[in-house]
Specification:
Blueprint lengths: L1 E2 L2 E2 H10 L9 E4 L5 H10 L3 E4 L4 H12 L4 E3 L9 H14 L3 E4 L20 E3 L1 H10 L3 H6 L2 H4 L7 E4 L15 H14 L8 H10 L1 H4 L11 H5 L3
C-alpha cells in the first residue's frame, strides 16, 4: 500500500537507514512465489533481501542475519511504518552499554505483563546478539517460538541476558501497527500530515498530531488489545 507515493515497506527501510548505529537494512521475506513482488521491489531499490521459510520465521530470520552479516541484529517487523530512528539509536546504545543478549523497546509481546511504561504498539524493535539468536534457532521447538522469532529469548527468566527500553510516559493504549484497514487509515492520515522527504517525523510529532486530531487516533480503537500477546508467552 502506498504512503506519500512510496510503498509502506520503502518508508520502513528509509526510516531505519536514518537510525544511529544501523549499518545495513535488509528484508527477510518468504520464498513463496506470491512474495516475488517484494523481492523484485527490494532488488530494484537496492535493498538486500533474503527469502526463506514462510512459517519457520526464526529459521528465516537467523539465516538472513548470517547472510547480511549482522551482529547484533535489529529486528523490526514490516507492519510498523512509524518505526522511530531516534528510539532505534537509543536501543542500540543501551544494548551495547549493558552487554545484553536481547534488548527490546518496551512494547508488543516483549512487554506483555511488564510494569514498565510502554511505547505505542508499532514502535517495536529488538536488538539481539547473534550468538543468542543462533542458540534460539538451534533449541526452540514450540511452533509459536519459531513463528514469532524471539519469544524463546525472553520467555524463560534467566536463560538470556534481557533488558527493555522503557518509555518516558506510558502510551501502551496506542496502536500504530498495521494489520487492518482501519490501522492503515490512521497511518495514511499521519503520513499525509507529517511526511517530509528531508527528515523522518518522530514519536513526539505523532503524539502532537493525535492530540490535535483525536478523531484520527480513534479510527482503529476497536483493535487495541486484540494482538494476542498472552498466547506468545503461553504457547501451550
Amino acid at each position: 500500500m502506498p504512503l506519500a507515493g512510496k510503498p509502506m515497506l520503502w518508508h520502513i527501510v528509509d526510516r531505519l537507514r536514518r537510525a544511529p548505529g544501523v549499518a545495513t537494512v535488509g528484508v527477510a521475506t518468504s520464498d513463496r512465489p506470491g512474495d516475488e513482488p517484494l523481492r523484485e521491489f527490494c532488488r530494484a531499490e537496492g535493498i538486500p533481501v533474503f527469502a526463506g521459510d514462510e512459517r519457520d520465521v526464526l529459521d528465516r530470520f537467523y539465516r538472513a542475519a548470517v547472510t547480511f552479516g549482522g551482529d547484533p541484529v535489529i529486528r523490526v517487523t514490516a507492519d510498523c511504518p512509524f518505526v522511530d530512528p531516534e528510539i532505534i539509536g537509543q536501543l542500540v546504545a543501551q544494548y551495547h552499554a549493558g552487554q545484553y543478549d536481547h534488548f527490546a523497546v518496551a512494547t508488543g509481546s516483549v512487554a506483555h505483563g511488564s510494569n514498565d511504561a510502554r511505547f505505542p504498539d508499532g514502535l517495536d524493535a529488538e536488538c539481539i546478539r547473534l550468538a543468542a539468536l543462533e542458540k534460539a534457532w538451534k533449541e526452540a521447538t514450540e511452533p509459536s517460538d519459531r513463528e514469532h522469532v524471539t519469544p524463546y529469548l525472553y520467555r524463560v527468566v534467566g536463560r538470556f541476558r534481557n533488558g527493555m527500553l522503557p518509555a518516558a510516559e506510558h502510551h501502551g493504549d496506542l496502536r500504530w501497527t498495521v494489520d487492518h484497514a482501519a490501522d492503515f487509515a490512521v497511518v495514511e492520515k499521519v503520513y499525509e500530515a507529517l511526511w517530509r522527504a528531508d527528515r523522518p517525523f518522530l514519536m513526539p510529532e505523532i503524539l502532537a498530531f493525535f492530540a490535535a486530531h483525536p478523531e484520527v487516533r480513534a479510527l482503529n480503537d476497536a483493535f487495541v488489545g486484540t494482538e494476542g500477546y498472552a498466547q506468545v508467552w503461553n504457547p501451550k
